[in-house]
Amino acid sequence: MKRTTVLVMVGAIVIFGISWVLKSMSLTSTTDHYIAKGFAITFAAFLTLCIFSFLYKDNPFYKFAEHLFVGVSAAFWMSMGFWSTIVGNLIPRVSETLSNYFKVPYHPESYNPFYFLPVFLGILLLLRLSRKVGWVSRWPLAFIVGTTAGFNFIRYLRSDFIEQVSATFVPLLVDWQGIGHFFSNLSLSSTGQFVAMLSNWVIFFGVLCGIIYFFFSKEHKGVFGGASKIGIWILMITFGASFGYTVMGRISLLVGRITFLFKDWLSLIS
Question: Do 174 and 256 sit in the same domain of this protein?
């Protein structure tokens, strides 16, 4: 098994080298940095195939790509956090010397001693790297998790609860001017009165049946049981649409990577 692994690794390196050379040769007429460009495209294709190899089974190629992705992502966001948060927001408000060093405008009018609190918490978080005092990092981590949960609770309460509840308070009779006016102006247009009323009635009965399904103080039988079954269908349709939307998003990512392989790497499609 060990010998097979070595042979596979050597074969992958040879194929990577051949692909790099061929891709660089195909870019000689389009760019001056064709060697670096060829390496970047070949390496990106190699990482894509490494991720796809997990469809067969877990293997060293997939683990390499996974660890590289996590490490690069962590380094990128830590760098972004340093330049945007520390250099961009903290230093211009606490130190003129450091502001001149990093060439950012100094704002003495915005000075606040409480700005040093997140600096202190951030230093405590870095103690996680120490085995002896790593437990200290749990305190700032608990503070961050609790604060973030509190802020997100208010935001999600407003967006996922209040906004959705208010969206169900819809008029069942849209622009009602009498039964005669309704039938004389009956239209199946998507912006017409009939379609608007039909949509509002579907929302009303869908929400009502969905709530009935979660009402367990009464046995689900008869009319109440029928409404409960309709509520199940409403919930399943909703969950299915949400799942389908998520799947389509993942498929779009897959299409993007396949297009990259066949267009940018192999040049089989234009």
Answer: yes
Angstrom distance (rounded) from CA 248 to CA 214: 30
The CA distance from 136 to 143, in Å, is 12
Q: Please state, in angstroms and rounded to a whole number, the distance separating the CA atoms of residues 79 and 102.
A: 14
CB neighbours of 59 closer than 8 A, spacing ≥ 6?
A: 53
* Domain that residue 160 falls in: 112-167
Residue 52 lies in a domain: no
Token look-up 């009402």 returns 215
Is there a domain that residue 214 lies in? yes
Asked if 235 and 210 count as a contact pair (C-beta separation under 8 A), the reply is yes
Same domain, 252 and 211: yes
Pick the last residue of a domain from 101, 134, 167: 167
pLDDT digits (tens, 9 = 90+) for 192-239: 889 999 999 999 999 999 999 999 998 989 999 999 999 999 999 999
Determine which helix (DSSP H) or strand (DSSP E) holds 242, and give its type and residue range: helix 222-259
Number of domains in the chain: 2
- Rounded to an integer, what distance in angstroms lies between the CA atom of residue 179 and that of residue 190? 20
141: which residues sit within 8 A by CB, 6+ positions away? 125
Give residue-wise pLDDT tens across range 98-150. 999 999 999 988 888 888 888 899 899 989 989 899 999 999 999 999 999 99
Pairwise CA distance, residues 187 & 181, whole Å: 12
- According to DSSP, residue 168 is labeled T
